Amino acid sequence: MTSYATSTARADMSELRRLRGLLPPELQSWVMVEGATAVNPPLITSEEIGKDEVEIQVDLVRWDQLALDQRNLLFWHEVARIQNDTIPRDGWEMAALAIGLGGAVGELWVQDALLLLLALGLSGVAGYRLYQKNNGEKRLREAIEADEKAIALATRFGYTLPNAYKSLGSALKTLIEQTPKKRQRSRYESRLQALKRSASKAKARAKASKEGQFDAQSESLYS
Fold it and tell me: Which residues contact 199 (CB under 8 A, 6 or more apart)?
């Protein structure tokens, strides 16, 4: 008799294979999809694991609680982040900041003005880069852009535009309900509002296009 642990492991492997199949062909050779192994990991995240290699990590326990369409759109959101080149990378900033600050303290001691300025300059550049990386508005803007691209990816894989918007909106609503941290929940809420605005614009464009086609057909009938 198959044990619960064995059947769960098989289901997890099956889901990872399914997600790999949702990668666009141009990403399949260098983007990996694996189950998260960290303690209390994010639901889904990406990180650079080597030169020209990225790994998408999924918390399969929480992932399994979502509907299939919700999973697909959240996965494509992560794929879009990779395509937009907005995933975190192993940066030099923290090391440079530490070196710069340490150097500045040392140069104060020996009173070398040129080296002190160089150390302070290094600290300033590193600090600014860290600020840019962790800027909340920038991260939200990148997430909204990834949502837009996720919708496009969904249509590429056979979703209709209304169903793509509906599935991603449903996923964001679920994340809002499940997220206790106010800041993270607020970010999901902002993404949902932006998605609703985008869906309204897409609906208006589709309606205008349909009306335009009807007018063109009418003209051809009576010309």
Answer: 162, 165, 169
